[in-house]
Amino acid sequence: MLILVVNAGSSSLKYQVRxxxxxxxEQMLTSGLVENIGTDVPNHEVAFDIMSEKLEPVLAGRELQxxxxxxxxxxxxxxxxxxxxEEVVQxxxxxxxxxxxxxxxxxxxxxxxxxxxxSLPQVAIFDTAFHSTMPEEAWRYAxxxxxADKYSIxxxxxxxxxxxYVSHVAADMLGIARDEFNGIVAHLGNGASVxxxxxGKSVDTSMGYTPLAGLIMGTRSGDIDPSxxxxxxxxxxxxxxxxxxxxxxxxxxxxxxxSNDMRxxxxxxxxxxxxxxxxxxxxxxxxxxxxxxxxxxxxxxQALIFTAGIGENSGDFRKLVLDRLGPLGIKYNExxxxxxx
Length: 341
Ligand code: ADP
Known about the structure:
Blueprint: E1 2-8, E2 13-19, E3 28-34, H1 44-59, E4 66-71, E5 82-83, H2 86-94, H3 103-116, E6 122-126, H4 136-139, H5 145-150, H6 160-174, E7 183-188, E8 192-198, E9 201-205, H7 226-236, H8 240-249, H9 252-257, H10 262-270, H11 274-297, E10 303-307, H12 308-313, H13 315-322, H14 334-339
Parallel strand pairs: 1-4, 4-6, 7-10
Antiparallel strand pairs: 1-2, 2-3, 5-6, 7-8, 8-9
Helix pairs in contact: 1-3, 2-3, 10-11, 11-13
Bound molecules: adenosine-5'-diphosphate (ADP).
Residues 189-191, 218, 261-263, 308-310, 313-314 line the site of adenosine-5'-diphosphate.
């Protein structure tokens, strides 16, 4: 099948065309990005037109057969890939209070794509869906039930498509049936999360109600005592939106080391920058704590999987984490680890 995969954000449209009849490594025929939606590009409809023009020479007369839309928040409503109808798009739009930066743009992208290709099947794939198997003891927060219910406040987890895909690949590589695989997945990009996979299913994950929770990330704080936030709110005299920006865009590695680019942080640490070293120590320490806890959650992991920009490419960061995991019986080949750097 010839499939167009899109990730419609508020200001950009990322896309790939994949030919699923080819071997996995050759499936991606093209990928690209339309930027500045809302400024240079007036709206998502125009962005889809621009993308279609770029696709024409690649498709060379072949017809697309389906469109896949990445959606950040599916909440409790969407636990599987879902064929789009106008009603489904409206329901995704209705989840916007839970993902104000993402779901409205996804819905606009879907409407534009359905307008452009009314006869093509279009499917929404949810970042949260893989985590819908978490037990209540993992997803519920210890706050009053009425507040949790009123605002649908619970752990949802994100990066689900990545966690699901790499745990399948790892199980296949190890010759373990996917539904018997127990492992820990560290998805370490600019956003980062770690997931406990038991019997092939997500049973816990570090991101929560939003992608702010858990690990120290490029620009996000990860876990922090909520009272620290009320103190900052009250004493700085700022509003919630500003606090949200501080925690999501001005914290993490950027706040600790002056850059959210792991390559720069590692280089700075290697040349003696103490704050950069501290940032690496804190980041790997936090991840170690999650891995140790999740090893118990899954009943003893058969594999620890690193993925995404940092996980795949930073042998230095993987080493920092792996060197802390001796008590779990983890040994690794330093030379092999350094190859993918
Ligand atoms: P996003 O969450 O934005 O999709 P990515 O998965 O692309 O993020 O990861 C971005 C992170 O990966 C950045 O911190 C970047 O520095 C890091 N990264 C990318 N390539 C390398 C590399 N070769 N070595 C170390 N870090 C890398």
